[in-house]
Amino acid sequence: MSKTIKSNEILPIVHAEAPAEEPEIQGEEAAPEPEEPEDVKPKIEAECGETPKCKSLRAHLDECTHRVESGETEENCNEELYHFMHCVDHCAAPKIFAHLK
């Protein structure tokens, strides 16, 4: 007859002790965690994308995207995207850094 070997006979099971709780110090209250500041970058970038200069570049990007999605061309819209993002970044950067002060 063969003897069945149980897994705990080969590798013993070990249980860790529960971590000790730190004693509360009387007279001291836990300091509240500071709230996370609002991220203004997406809002500023959206506003900059609506400026007349950037809006015209967005129109070129949308036209290119339409041509590519309809299968009219084999081109990609990288150049149009870069021009639009450059315009948005150029407009948004000083406004974003002004919020960091």
Automatic annotation (TrEMBL):
GO cellular component, one term: mitochondrial inner membrane
Annotated Pfam families: UCR_hinge (PF02320)
Keyword Oxidoreductase listed: no
Topology in membrane: Peripheral membrane protein
GO process terms (BP): mitochondrial electron transport, ubiquinol to cytochrome c
Domain of life: Eukaryota
Residues covered by region (Disordered): 1-43
InterPro entries registered for this protein in UniProt: Cyt_b-c1_6, Ubol_cytC_Rdtase_hinge_dom, Ubol_cytC_Rdtase_hinge_dom_sf
Every Ubiquinol-cytochrome C reductase hinge domain range: 39-101
Keyword Membrane: yes
Localization, UniProt: Mitochondrion inner membrane
Keywords, in A-Z order: Disulfide bond, Electron transport, Membrane, Mitochondrion, Mitochondrion inner membrane, Respiratory chain, Transport
Positions with biased composition (Acidic residues): 19-38
Family per record: Belongs to the UQCRH/QCR6 family.
Protein name: 10965_t:CDS:1
Organism: Ambispora gerdemannii
